[in-house]
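Catalogue entry: protein

Sequence with per-residue tokens
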Amino acid sequence: MRLLRLGAAVATAFLLGCVIEGCGSGPAPSAASVKPVGDRKSAPDFVLKDGNGRDVRLSDYRGQVVLLDFWATWCEPCRVEIPWFTELQRKQKDRGFAVLGVSIYDDGWEAVKPFEARMKMNYRVLMGTDEAAHAYGGLDALPTTFLIDRQGSIAAIHVGLANRRDFEDGVERLLEAPRRSAAYRGAVPALINWTR
């Protein structure tokens, strides 16, 4: 029975690799490259609780590049990506970058806090809601990760397990992008409908 489970796990891993990386002879195209500025849409704002019960708004991070990751403790691909995000947070936080991890479809903080400690997550973890999931398209798969530029617009979306390099390159491109003038930045909140 144990051998049968191992065989099923290997077959599943192979098929998952084919879906994610592509089983063809050439390299799989990146489906989540950073969009041109004119093609980006505003990221919906939210108010979610962190592990200390404090309200956190996405709009609190305006002016920073944000990696917004929707994940769950039971999601195996999420476990693969979380160490990458921990490393990105460590390396890039002083450049105006932040990771926000939104736990979704979990059994509350009783499940999330021990997982967060075990994974040594060094970024802010929030408890997701159905409303937040709906605002971001319903989240058909986990993980689903959004790269958000300094102006609060979605620059890239990764659905399912993505390539580590895609995240690193996307974050670097957004961090290197020229900042808009202070006068223009001051006008942005009035122009963006955060609640859609």
